[in-house]
Design a protein that fits this description.
The structure holds two protein chains of two kinds. By secondary structure, chain A is mainly α. Chain A contains eleven helices and four strands, in the order ααααβββααααβααα. In chain A, 72% of the residues lie in helices and 3% in strands. Chain B is 36% helix and 21% strand. The chains are: A mainly alpha, B alpha/beta.
Chain lengths: 290, 280
């Protein structure tokens, strides 16, 4: 029971880190970046290659993955989304889906279709016994990483000038521009942060579930998107709560109900929540003016 | 190397006038032959204006005359179809709203556009954004320079809020302020960007007479303290006639009259624009 709970929180932490990328980009650029899940996959491959082929130690591999993903995120935004800044949201959405397929197929060409076995970077560390439950090191690292990221991000958005500028842009781009805020820089920065976090999530995900394929990112990506909507899209604490709840529900459903039905149950819970709280758990209620 | 030809420069008589006190100081804003078309519609045409360094100028006209469009042109929300806008002697052709803001033009909005979920102080700090001299990374790692700059910004924000006696409201969110206070906060936020020209779009809208009276005093106070120019759009004629040194009247996108408040009050064209023609 306790072991399931901890595993659920751990899986949920990974979802939460991914969900942050969705929620921040949505909050600031008002778009759903469906290519976000595939940036996770790229992060997985980059760290895999740098450990297996270049012999990098794990921390350096993670750092390299973060640098590559951050650059990738900024590049995707510049090339694919920036020209559509004033286009309809549907056009941007279709472009994001296209970008997602592009990344998957590029990975297919570069790394091939065969699944790669991701090395366990914690293989020398024993699983920890806690109140009769065995906790794997990666589960612990995921939870700790999530907490650190949440605290750092909250401090960043509430206490620094660029963080405040991000919140201002998310509320009113036009007014922010006229107060001298560079909206393009703010959006680029959001993509950079989201993609850097995606790299961390990618490494954690591949360590916990060590098969790496070009489609590795898509299912966790969709679940993290669900988590972001669940918690209230646009809200950073919402992503955290949504992610963890989703992880816990998934693990419990898999353990006690049916492993085949686990995903269906996860999405079922989302539907029920959205019926009663259409803006998610922490989403702001929008009052229609009459 | 050949010597450049000698050219004799002569003064071109400007169609603009400024208050006597601003003579000799460069104009803060000079727009010439300014115009914009939306599709086939000529929204603004032949708009000429010169604003002195510490002048308070009123822009009035019936609804739909193009007053807010002029503000959008001056702040480069729209790129003009025709004409030039000089800010402090520099042409603003092809510049962005962010660039002209940094050159010294700031504005408020007809329909209040504060950052509702940010606190009053944070709203002012958005205005101070380009005056805080620390790098994004210094903010991430909280280097000493981050703390000192944030502290300076905090003090400056409170100082600016104090102009309107709002320093004690620094920590409430903007959307919880009463209407009049929201309008005042918009002015403070615009002032925080360090403008030489402040554009106020209907600052007294929705205010009662005593609030309007206070606002008039505050606009004068801001002008005197910061030594800046103010261009304001307003329908409240008591305010316009009470504080503006010059008035520009717009109708159907064109200037129909310019002058001092007393000249405008007696101008038959202005009366006609507001009240319609007299039919005998």
């Amino acid at each position: 029971m306790l072991a399931h709970l901890i595993n659920g929180i751990s899986l949920g932490s990974i979802y939460a880190i991914i969900a942050l990328g969705y929620t921040m980009v949505y909050g600031i650029a008002k778009m759903l970046n469906f290519a976000h899940g595939d940036v996770i996959m790229v992060g997985g491959y980059v760290s895999f290659c740098s450990m297996m082929y270049l012999g990098f130690p794990a921390p350096l591999a993670v750092l390299l993955a973060m640098i590559v993903c951050t650059t990738l995120g900024i590049t995707i935004e510049r090339l694919a989304y920036k020209p559509l800044r004033s286009a309809t949201s549907l056009a941007v959405l279709i472009t994001a889906i296209g970008m997602s397929y592009f990344l998957q197929n590029a990975a297919l060409i570069i790394w091939g279709a065969n699944p790669k076995a991701f090395p366990n970077m914690f293989k020398d560390i024993e699983a920890i016994e806690f109140a009769g439950a065995r906790i794997s090191p990666v589960a612990l690292v995921a939870i700790v990483a999530n907490v650190i990221i949440m605290v750092a991000l909250t401090l960043f958005t509430s206490r620094t000038k660029v963080g405040k500028a991000m919140r201002a842009v998310s509320e009113d781009k036009g007014a922010a521009t006229l107060m001298g805020i560079n909206v393009n820089f703010t959006i680029s920065l959001t993509f950079a942060i989201g993609s850097g976090l995606a790299a961390i999530a990618g490494v954690l995900l591949c360590t916990a579930y060590p098969t790496l394929m070009p489609t590795t990112g898509s299912m966790p990506g969709i679940k993290a998107f669900t988590a972001a909507v669940f918690g209230g899209i646009g809200s950073i604490p919402g992503a955290m709560i949504g992610g963890i709840l989703l992880g816990v529900i998934e693990i419990f459903a898999r353990a006690y109900i049916s492993s085949e039905l686990a995903d269906a149950i996860v999405f079922g819970v989302l539907i029920v929540v959205l019926i009663f709280r259409p803006t998610g758990l922490l989403g702001k209620q929008i009052h229609e003016k009459v | 190397m050949s010597k450049s030809p000698e050219v004799k420069l002569v003064n071109v008589p400007s169609p603009n006038f400024v208050p006597e006190k601003d003579l000799g100081k460069p104009l803060v804003l000079e727009a010439a032959h300014l115009g914009i078309d939306f599709g086939g519609l000529v929204a603004v045409d032949e708009f000429n204006i010169g604003i002195g360094a510490t002048e308070i100028c009123g822009l009035i006209g019936p609804n739909g005359a193009g007053k807010t469009t002029i503000f959008n042109l001056l702040t480069k929300v729209y790129e003009p179809t025709r004409g030039t806008i000089m800010l402090g002697g520099k042409d603003t052709h092809n510049l962005t709203p962010v660039q002209v803001n940094q050159m010294g033009i700031a504005r408020t909005f007809q329909n209040i556009r504060l950052f509702d979920k940010l606190t009053v102080e944070e709203n002012v700090k958005i205005g101070l954004h380009n005056h805080m001299g620390y790098h994004t990374l210094a903010g991430v790692f909280r280097l000493p320079n981050y703390w000192s700059e944030e502290k300076k910004a905090h003090e400056r924000a409170l100082e600016l809020l104090d102009i309107f006696g709002m320093a004690d409201l620094a920590n409430v969110t903007a959307d919880s302020l009463p209407y009049g206070a929201q309008r005042r906060l918009e002015i403070v936020r615009a002032l925080a960007t360090g403008p030489k020209l402040l554009l106020l779009d209907e600052p007294a809208a929705g205010m009662n007479p005593s609030e309007t009276e206070e606002l008039m005093n505050n606009i004068r106070k801001i002008r005197d303290e910061f030594q800046i120019a103010v261009l304001l759009i307003e329908h409240d004629m008591n305010l316009v006639m009470g504080i503006c040194e010059s008035i520009v009247v717009l109708n159907f996108g064109r200037i129909i009259a310019k002058g001092t408040p007393s000249q405008i009050q007696g101008n038959p064209q202005v009366i006609e624009a507001y009240l319609g023609t007299h039919r005998g």
